Each structure stands twice: as structure tokens, then as C-alpha cells.
Amino acid sequence: MERKTVILGVTGGIAAYKAADLASRLVQKGYTVKVVMTKAATRFVAPLTFQTLTGQPVVVDMFAAPPVWNVAHVAYAEAADVVLIAPATADIIAKLAHGFADDMLTTTVLATQAPVVLAPAMNSNMYLNPAVRENLGLLRARGFYIVEPETGRLACGASGPGRLAPPEAILEAVERVLRGAQDLAGWRVLVTAGPTREPLDPVRFLSNRSTGKMGYALASVAARRGANVTLISGPTSLEAPPSVKRVEVTSAEEMCAQVLAHLPEATALVMAAAVADWRPRAFSPEKIKKEGRETLRLELERTPDILAEVAERKRAEQVVVGFAAESSHLAERAREKLVRKRLDFIVANDITRSDAGFASDSNQVQIIWPDGRVEELPLLTKEEVAAAIWDRVLRVKKENQPPSAN
Q1: 275: helix, coil or strand?
Q2: Within 55-162, where are the H helices?
Q3: pLDDT, tens digit, for every residue of 307-345?
Q4: What are the helix and strand counts (H, E) for the chain?
Q5: 256 counts as catalytic
Q6: Within a 13 Å sphere around the CA of 200, how many CA atoms are in the beta-carbon half?
Q7: For the domain bounded by 5-178, which CATH number is listed?
Q8: What CATH number labels 188-400?
Q9: Interval 241-254: pLDDT, tens
Q10: Structural contact between residues 241 and 223, judged by C-beta atoms closer than 8 angstroms
Q11: Could you say which of 64, 71, 156, 308 is catalytic?
């Protein structure tokens, strides 16, 4: 296999010492690692440390004469299969977001066509500052990969989000980018998305506020990671993601029929649709008129419980994930649904938040496991949430794999 080149950018934060461990691990995995340091980073770790670990010269000064003549930032930019910046300080994030090119690292990033992975690390108040959040949002929108920091005790003595992600998480992100995230190749994935509509008369229906964005993000990310994706979608204004087969439905009954029809072939099912729980017991073939009445009494009946039907048919090797959108008692109600529907895990989100959930491009979710564990993810784009969900589906699938006959 051809050796891949990682350009490791190290910036001036206390977590810079952890970059030495990252460089060592990358070399041990067989990558060529070329380190670019900001001048501030050299106040925390000496360039000689990285030169010794990588066997490569370390670049700090953009104007220093290179050992072999070339335009250094262009040469590094062209050599890169991926650029990893760890730690990424608030300063470097701001510079990259706004196109600065005032040192070797920023000019290299601007000149490269390679994917860029950022692992932020900073004080909690800085990380949560609206300016930093906005800059990270700009970079995400341009295709940068962000490895979210951990929550915990920081060097300043405070506790909160901002601690550099574990090296395993950063290395996993780099390797996923390098292999094009084809870790779902060969899978047949089934995703549901959007609302359902339950007709009352020829012009009216019962529905909900779902736009389908979360389900479409799940389908899009799975397809990019190599899966054969079928997206069963309620009514939305979204276009089908590339390479995704979309099956359009309207009602919960139609969605249930399509899920059960496609389930036997599915490696994994993620039920992100907001399926209506109730429908009118009687459909009026004529438009219901308001003349002659002051009130209208509707009798409702339950729609099919799709996940309950799936639970009865699910094979042991299939992975099934549900969503729980709640306005109160989030974890408690999600956990009850997880157990009742016999899910591998459930994704819960608070629909009362103004910056997440329905119609938003972002989401903040909890992933709840059968053993009681709760993973609370930070506020992320829906594509980032989708990637996190597929990472965990992949992990469950590996754990469910029967032992080899050998």
C-alpha cells in the first residue's frame, strides 16, 4: 500500500505536547508525517522533538531556506494526503475561517487540495464563545472535518468542553478521511426520513414539523461511506442525496409497508422519520365544510407501530436504531422506547431547543445504550451527527459478528 503523507500542524496551546504522541502513533501506523509548527507552538514543544519522532525536518519559518529548493508551503500542500491540525487553537481556527495566510501553516492549508482535519483545544469559555462557534461553522460548511474536544478538567483548572480529543479519536478521524470512509461498503442500509401525512379529507391532513433533514443526512453520509442506501421518505422539499435510492411515501401505513418490504435485505435500519402516531378514524371523500357548524369533533386511531413490527422480524445480525424526539423527560422516555422496541441504541433529542431539531441544520443528541450508558454529543451539524451514528452502528455490527469458524 502506498505510504500516505500527513501534514501535522501544531499550534500554540498547552495541548501541543500531546501532538508528539499523535506524531509517533501516525509514524507507527506507516504514515509519512511532516510537521509544521507555528512560532507559538515552539514555546511549548521544541521542533527537535517532532524531527526525532518523524525523521522529517520540521518547518516553522516560511522564509527559512529549505534543505532542497522548493516553495515550501506549496510543496507541503501538494504532498499532503490529509492535513491534521492538533491542537487547533481559537487563533488558527479564526485565521483559517477568514482566509489568513500569514505563516507557514495557514498558507499550506490555503494551498492544499487535501482534506483538513481540525482537533480544537482551548479554554471552555473560548470554545463556547459565539465567534469561535461561528468560525467552526464556517469551516464545517467548507468541508473541514472537526474532531470535537472532550469535556473535562482543563490545564487552567476549570472544567468543561475544550480538552483535546483522545488520540484514538483523532487517529480514527484521519484514517476515515484517508480511506474515503468506505467502511460501510457492502452494506445495505435502510433509512426513514421526514414526516408522514394522515389524510382527513381531500385537502387536509394531520402531520408534524419534521423536514427530513436528519434522515437525509444519514442517507447521504452512509452513501458516501460506501453503503447501498434506500431512503424511505415522507413528504419533504429535499432532493435525494447522490447514489441514494429514494422511495416516496405519504402515510404511516405506506411507510410501514415499505420498511417491512426492504427490511429482509437490510444490514442496518435507522428510523429517523417522525411518523404520525395518530390518524383520523374516518376519511371524508368530500371536503369537510365549516358552514352550519361551530366545532368539529375528530376521532383518531393509532397508526402502525413500525419499530414494533420491525422488532418481531429483526434478525440477530441486523442493527436497528430509533430516534426519540421529546419535549420533557428526554432520557427517561427514550430509554423506555429503547427497551420496548428492542433497539440496539436510540438517539434522543430535545425538540424544545431553538438551535437544534426540526428545520435546523444542527442537532444536539444523546445516544442511549441498552446497558444504561448515555453519550451526550455537543451541538453538531446534522451530517456530523449522522457520521457519529454510523460510527456506532458500525461498532455494534462488529460486536454482533459471529466468531470465525477458524
Answers
A1: coil
A2: 72-79, 90-97, 104-111, 124-128, 130-141
A3: 999 999 999 999 999 999 877 878 889 999 999 999 999
A4: 13, 21
A5: no
A6: 14
A7: 3.40.50.1950
A8: 3.40.50.10300
A9: 878 999 999 999 99
A10: yes
A11: 156
